[in-house]
Amino acid sequence: QVQLVESGGGLVQAGGSLRLSCAVSGSIFRFNFMGWYRQAPGKQRELVATITSGSTTNYADSVKGRFTISRDNAKNTVYLQMNSLKPEDTADYYCTVNCLIPFGQFWGRGTQVTVSA
What we know:
With 117 residues, the chain is mainly beta. Helices cover 0% and strands 60% of the residues.
């Protein structure tokens, strides 16, 4: 059973930084990508950043140059370093892994990020 647990959210002032962590447990033999999505109140969930099994990264235009996704294979953890935060970054942030073996897309329960003006 694949499980993902996010941590690191909180309240920060605009211009500040946070680092989100996602601890992944369970047996994953092959995956396409790991990533972060976010959902603001009243809005749809949107892609923030992904990192493939080959370590290729992809970012939403709104976070390029400010956010960095990384992965520590030894710790089975995915990170999202968020710098120069803006009030519009306020959302619940969800970690996900798109797996081939076992097949499926798995999600964490989310961590809340609030950026005050």
